[in-house]
Amino acid sequence: MLHKFLTLLRNFATNTSNTVTTNQMIKDKVIAAYEKMAVKYDELIDHKPHNAYYDRPNTLALLPDVKGKNILDAACGPGKYAEILIAQGAKVLGYDISPKMVELAIKRNQNQAEFYVHDLSTPFKTIGNETYDIVLCALALHYLEDWAPAIIEFNRVLKKDGILVISIEHPFNDFNFFKSKKYFEIEQVKCTWKGFGEAIEVNSYRRSLSECLTPLTENGFYIDKLVEPKPTKEFENADPRHFKELNEFPAFLCVRAVKRNH
């Protein structure tokens, strides 16, 4: 009996170790991809249709008046969201896992905000409880296999009735795009991006709609608004083919969640 227990324990330890190793490998690949595309990403971000005329307008529309608000820009990229929010009177702190993106965010915002390298799967060690009015996390959570640690931290740093706004890849679109056969499983997936200079392999995780919403509702938030976005008119002028596609089926999902008072 003891032998069987020890065998099970060893197998569990091995499987856990393999999972940790795999997760770290995926994380390293994500960082490498963004380091590689960072400069071109920054050059194009102001007018690249999926960002400028699809993600940003729909995500920003979920925010209240930000003047005088403290905003945590989690996964800030090259600082475009921060630039917009600062211009509207917000105080912004930005984090990103890519050192190059952080460097570009600092350059873009000219010392009007602070930006640091940070992995969203780990705690914000330098941020106190109930410090921020709003947490913004745009197009980043799909790089995490487990959302819970990040969502718990978002809840912790938000003030009473604080708002979390996220944009993610739409789970139904991902299911079709990656030709998945296992909708309810969280799957590691990858594709090649060709829109930021050279072709770059980008790894992420695909998940069901419930796996997108449950981490919020089980970790201190209620869903206030959910938007399946449509592209703006500017998108049509820049990219008519994708404009048509996005009006027929969404690629992203935007969510506003509010911190629950216990």
TrEMBL record:
Keywords noted in UniProt: Methyltransferase, Transferase
Residue ranges of the TM segments: none
SUPFAM superfamilies: S-adenosyl-L-methionine-dependent methyltransferases (SSF53335)
Pfam families: Methyltransf_11
BP GO terms, sorted: methylation
Record's keyword annotation contains Methyltransferase: yes
Cited InterPro entries: Methyltransf_11, SAM-dependent_MTases_sf
GO MF, one annotated term: S-adenosylmethionine-dependent methyltransferase activity
Domain of life: Bacteria
The Methyltransferase type domain, residue ranges: 72-166
Cross-referenced CDD domains: AdoMet_MTases
PANTHER family, alphabetized: TRANS-ACONITATE 2-METHYLTRANSFERASE, TRANS-ACONITATE 2-METHYLTRANSFERASE-RELATED
Protein name per Swiss-Prot or TrEMBL: Class I SAM-dependent methyltransferase
Lineage, top ranks: Bacteria, Pseudomonadati, Bacteroidota, Sphingobacteriia, Sphingobacteriales
